[in-house]
Write a structure and sequence with these properties.
heterodimer, A: 304 residues, alpha/beta, four-stranded antiparallel β-sheet, 11 helices, 13 strands, elongated, B: 289 residues, mainly alpha, 12 helices, globular
Chain lengths: 304, 289
């Protein structure tokens, strides 16, 4: 459980985090979503005491991070910035961090295995690819078997295999009752991993809701293509209310996008009337749409 | 690289009982800092070069001094006690004011490398109170510096005796022992001076410039200033690190120059303590990076 109350951080005159309050609950994956510069990384640094808040508080399981007796057993953190000396081997890096808490070499070997770093564990970190660096960061975060995991852009630089691996790992850790917080600017990543999303924009909380509230929030549509599109459209409209039909962008009249009824119903109408269908696709309201709407005003560096 | 297959079964195994419950302790932090320093190749190479350079200079000075005795027609076996003591100290500690630069750079590097690599973020996330990390680092640095200085002074003394066996009788004289101790304390303090200033500046280049400036440039500046005849200039110059290094490595003798051995010892400890304290204040007050 992480609780922020009125959390604020200025860097000079710039407000990186501006009077933010939220609660991150255990047993689920919470996503920090927002454009670059929205305050995601800063909030995470404040949680583990790397930066000091200008105002407000943030607590981990009810305590300030610096007051904990075994910080690594409470929070495992993967920061966006590389926190590793390039001249040291992966194993030495992990052993040095483990030593602070009296964590055994056996556990170091376990996290090396768990993150698939066995073959490079004794190589200098300077030669690691971005993906291997991310795995090492995750290994370090897992060292203390922590109750809370904070991961800044964990899938950054990973190959598809690695992305899937992180996703499963996080879901599993949350299912064990741990608190998992990850940040991303990739909305699709959030949609597949997070249960709950906190959207940040310009240092403020723009939205704080379960992922289901974002996806399919009254925006579900069905894309229909047919050589008899006009005929089908009038059949669909007949006797029904609250249906919204839009011609497809292509403008050749060979299809439309419908909201207000399910793909199955449209298919049945077509079958009953002997109408040929070329395409019938349900389009879920995407997190992208919701996200773009929410952050439109908050984008710090809007294009053009 | 192989990609680990993740399954709930392996996770349950690996997350289960990991022995004792993890707990942050100062002993653990010291061990962590020891692992950090001993796992960097650059540190090992720096220490090796220091030892080689020091042994080389000892060889050179022992050979040169022995030659000068025979040139002056002196019988080495008949040299007076204070001449033998001075010979031993020259051979073993003569280079220490110059080696100080390497020790200072070592001190700078121990902390500035954490900032240049970003490692400081991992270090402080593991030790969020910060003070134990800082003192753990300072302690490991001081021990490494002390052991290195002890070894290089011991090598110097051995070389001195090898060239001039009659000097062996003076090895445990108060003058030689205090001189050796002075040189070791001096080198340890210079490494802590570099450490403290680098903790304030958080930069390798800045730290090295400051250390080199204090050791080598400031004395030259004061030398020029002394031409003005101002009385305070030579007094201040005596308390600069380089000058204190010479005073300390001469040992506690009657011929000791101002400010004397024990006051000099106090002064060099202050040169270490003040920057180290400033570094701690900055570390506690500022954001991690």
């Amino acid at each position: 459980m992480i609780e922020a109350r009125g959390l604020t951080k200025h860097y000079g005159v710039k407000k990186a985090v501006d009077n933010v309050s939220f609660t991150i609950k255990p047993g689920q994956v919470t996503g920090f979503l927002g454009p670059n510069g929205a305050g995601k990384s800063t909030s995470m640094r404040l949680m583990v005491g790397l930066d000091k808040p200008s105002a407000g508080t943030v607590t981990v399981n009810g305590e300030r991070y610096s007051g904990l007796r075994a910080p690594l057993a409470e929070i495992g953190v993967l920061l966006d910035a590389k926190g590793v000396h390039p001249g040291r081997s992966a194993r030495s890096h992990l052993r040095a961090l483990a030593a602070t808490h009296g964590i055994s070499d056996k556990r170091v070997n376990e996290v090396i295995e768990l993150t698939g770093l066995e073959s490079v564990a004794n190589k200098r970190v300077g030669g690691f690819s971005l993906g291997m660096g991310q795995r090492l960061g995750i290994a370090a975060a897992l060292l203390g078997d922590p109750k809370v995991l904070i991961l800044d852009e964990p899938v950054n630089g990973l190959d598809p295999d690695g992305v899937l691996w992180v996703r499963n790992l996080l879901r599993h850790l949350a299912s064990q009752g741990r608190t998992v917080l990850l940040s991303s600017h990739l909305m699709s990543e959030m949609a597949q991993t997070a249960d709950h999303v906190i959207v940040l924009g310009r240092g403020r909380v723009v939205a704080d809701a379960p992922i289901s509230d974002f996806v399919g929030n009254g925006t579900a549509r069905v894309t229909v293509r047919s050589p008899q599109a006009a005929e089908l459209a009038s059949l669909v409209m007949t006797g029904r209310e609250g249906i919204d039909l839009q011609p497809l962008d292509r403008g050749d009249g060979a299809g439309f996008s419908a909201a207000g009824l399910a793909a199955a119903e449209i298919g049945e109408i077509a079958a009953r009337n002997g109408i040929v269908l070329h395409e019938l696709t349900p389009v879920t309201g995407s997190l992208e749409d919701a996200y773009l709407q929410l952050t439109r005003d908050e984008l710090e560096y809007a294009a053009g | 690289m192989t990609s680990a297959q993740y399954s709930p079964e392996t996770a349950r195994q690996t997350f289960a009982g990991t022995g004792r419950a993890p707990r942050l302790s100062f002993g653990g932090v010291v061990k962590s800092e020891r692992i950090k320093l001993s796992s960097l190749r650059s540190i090992r190479i720096t220490l090796l070069i220091t030892l080689l350079a020091s042994a080389g200079l000892s060889l050179l000075s022992a050979w040169a001094m022995k030659s000068s005795y025979s040139y002056e027609g002196l019988d080495p076996a008949a040299l007076p006690v204070d001449a033998l003591q001075s010979y031993l100290l020259t051979v073993s500690t003569f280079a220490s004011p110059f080696l100080a630069l390497i020790f200072g750079v070592l001190g700078v590097f121990v902390i500035s490398s954490e900032y240049s690599s970003g490692m400081i973020l991992s270090s402080l996330a593991a030790v969020p109170r910060r003070t134990p990390m800082y003192f753990g680092k300072a302690l490991v640095l001081a021990v490494i510096a002390a052991v290195t200085a002890l070894v290089l002074v011991a090598i110097g003394l051995a070389i001195g005796i090898a060239f001039l066996p009659p000097a062996a009788a003076q090895l445990f004289s108060a003058t030689v022992l205090t001189g050796a101790l002075g040189a070791i304390v001096y080198l340890v303090c210079i490494s802590l001076l570099g450490f403290g200033f680098a903790a304030v500046l958080r930069s390798t280049a800045g730290g090295i410039s400051l250390v080199a400036g204090l050791i080598f440039v400031l004395p030259i500046g004061l030398q020029f200033l002394s031409m003005t005849g101002w009385e305070w200039v030579p007094t201040v110059a005596q308390y600069l690190p380089m000058s204190l290094g010479s005073t300390l490595s001469m040992g506690d003798t009657a011929m000791s120059v101002d400010p004397g051995y024990w006051v000099g010892m106090l002064a060099i400890v202050l040169w270490a303590a003040v920057p180290t304290a400033l570094g701690l204040v900055v570390l506690k007050a500022r954001d991690a990076k």
